[in-house]
Amino acid sequence: MRNRIIITLAILFSFITCSDVLAESSHQMGSYIIGFNETIDEEVTSTMEHRIYETMENIQAVAARLTSAEAAELQSHDSVAFIEEDAEIKVQSIPTIDWGVNRIGAPKVWEHGVTGEGVKVAVMDTGISTNHPDLKIQKGASFVPYTTSYNDDNGHGTHVAGIIAAQKNDIGVTGVAPDAQLYALKVLDDKGNGLTSYVVSAINWSLKEGVDIINLSLGGKNQSTSLQQAIQHAYSQGVLFVAAAGNEGSTRGLDNTVDFPAAFDQVIAVSAVDQQDRRAVFAQGSSAAGPTVEVAAPGLNIRSTYLNRQYNVQSGTSMAAPHVAGHLALLKQVYPDRTHTQLRQLLRQQTVDLGNPGRDTHFGFGRIAIPSTLRIQVPRPLPPTGVQAKVENWEGERANITVTWQKPTQGDTPTHYNIYRNNQQITQVPAGTLSYTDNVAKGTYTYSVATVGEAGEQSDRSQTITLQVEKNNDKPSVPSFTDVRGDEWFADSLYDLRQRGILEGYPDGTARPNQVITRGEAAVLMTKALGYEATPYQHGFIDVRAQSFQADYIQTMIDQRIFAGYSNQSFRPHIAIARGEVAAILTRGFTLKPQQQVTFSDLSTNYFAYYAVIQVARANVAVGYKDGTFRPHNQVTRAEFASFLSRAIESEEKL
To answer: Is 190 among the catalytic positions?
Structure first.
């Protein structure tokens, strides 16, 4: 049912009747209806033509902008029957939220302040009605040749705009993202027709205005290279495109009927569903289907804004697409730092799977569903800097470790700090404190500190710091690895090698302990562990480039006969090294003292490294498995190699 709306226009004009009225021009202007006795007196109206905004010949009256003094003067004119204020009349309707907006879950996140505020959404359509009380247009432009106005003379674009961002007020309807900024781009005429070049020009205009999302509730069957190139360029600049999939799908939906531009890879193609989440059926066909359909949204009997300040109900994938544009506006507000591709991926995840499991040709990833937990992200404070830890003194068998840090120079003011030991929070200290003393037994400990801001949000943890605590032999702290807690079986060995300057880790601060170690990486660590200077690469291995970081270390290990190449003149630096080979290179580089007798059920005396395996096992450098095997052919992880190497160094130091 349509709501009939009676309105009055208030357009400012300049109006001059005589010199004494000119003196009143500084008075506040008002809107008045001037009624005449028999016919409209042209002698009177000719003096105010540029202030008249409505002529009502059926009642012999005009509406004009006047000052109060002008109105009083006209009241006494012989031909004037009456003059009254042209009073504003408001819509007499109860504000509603359409079923589509409700179905996708938008009202629940409005309560969290998620309304699309600050997000720029362009509606490329027939324009947007410029005087609709439920729509606020940020800016616009016309690209059709017959008018420079982006005012809607068809109704389609106004309906689409209302689904996206009809304001949350006391009238009409509310859009998915009621505070999004609407950009009205008129690319279709009063019949709903336009040219590809209009859309291309509008896309370029949108880029200059910094638009975030473009809604295209339009399309056709012809693929346009120019349009595709314009979309590709804008997409590469971070613009999100949402388009109607089309309304001419077959009954069974087995054919690819998705229109362009929705069918382009850079565009989110939207199909339509009804109130039962079924594929929508329209007068001219069903919602389009095809492999490029990405998501589905409500598109049948959707009530939204329309021309002449009215509201009406329309159907089509044209109505489904703006639901998705609104959803993306909400996501963009919540996650302003995420890229357009990340937001697109998030949209795919925020769906209810319909039809065949997973992505299908009717509903894509499913009907969009905004999580009720979506809310504005409170800015997190910055972590402390300059974290240090050292052993202060011993009390019997326990040590006092003092952890210190510096207050972050930017971000939220701290209210307190959370202290972590071995990845577990152990205490909390007030903001004025920049140190904490921990009492521990001997062992390896990793510390980090996090800031807690005024909003109660915790920062990321600081860079971690690790100490090996041994009585009378305390080692200084070293920067920790971000992927090592400190309580793993291999942690002591990793930090021992880091303390010795043998193992540095990766540029991102990780040690990647569970990643297999290659022959080239093992050559680097062995060279450093044995204290050799890297020798300039001269060997002609077919798979080692002289420019490689590992080349000089490989040369050193070859010169020292700790590593060997293969018969085809390869070194295979990128091949994972096996446990048996590790045993061989350790025995070539280190003198190991036997401590125990060992045998392994899977080790033959014919194996090339049989004696090396026995030697490292007897020295307790490399141990076997609980089932009595050594598994010499198993690949070695970085954690295992670090453990073998650290034990070998310690074994030789004890000789």
So the answer is: no
